[in-house]
Specification:
With 308 residues, the chain is of the alpha/beta class. It is built from seven helices and eight strands, in the order ααβββαβααβαβββα.
Length: 308
Amino acid sequence: NLDGAPVALRYRANRIALGRALDAERDQVRDARLSAEGRHEAQRRLDRFVSLLRPGRQVLAFDPTGTGRTAEVLGDLARARRVSVIVPGVDTNLLTFQKTHGRYGAPAGMARSLYRAERAASPGARVAVIAWADYTAPAGVGVDAMTGRLAEGGAARLVRLTEGLPGDARVALFCHSYGSVLCGVAAPRLPARVTDVAVAGSPGMRVERAAELRTPARVWAMRDADDWIADVPHLEVGGIGHGADPVAPEFGARLLSARGAVGHSGYFTPGTESLGNFAAIGVGAYRDLVCARADSACHEGISGAEGR
């Protein structure tokens, strides 16, 4: 899991680690001392390991300890010219990395949806998408979700990831919910190759203005009309809360349409303007962006962007 190591080597190493974790979990499932609940939890973890070991899956990071962390790559990361990194929010762990129901609200489903959309938006582009669940996220909407403590730890890991990606590909971050807090904390330390930071359903980025992020990357924000995060107070007092609302015009982000997205977890659903906008950023097709009505000039000042 060493950032900067050749990606093929990391894939092989993580398959070995997954195989060992699978063997250990099989022993757990057979342990007669476990309660029914414990055995059920072990079976769920075993099923997740089996899924991640399926042929064709490219696991960039894997750590089964605690609630677990992982990251998966779609596309050819070693040859990509543009890399999109999805940074998810609360309740992200090994067991929630992918879901059958609500699949586009889980990191693996978000990544698959974005990768397909990017390939459709620019069929010849050399793109890769990373479902990055390689940090310890808050469990539920409790104290950890209202502070920046876990975002600080995650930000350091995200910076190392972006610094260690192969080649000189441009990188875009797509930060959902608490993931946008993490991206805000990471912003001043991100390498110059990170050209875009897009947040959706954000409780705040721990600053009052986009300029305070101290990053040359373009900052984009969106929120759909019925996302409950709009009702969360956007302020910070004594370390509680995450600051100003990124979709407020005075924040200074470029505002994008999220038309078609439903609720807090619908931004990566196929057919939505939110996903279309993410894909356009991911492939650099800024002329195809759909601005929010509050910011009809969201693509001004971007070289070659015509917009609509």
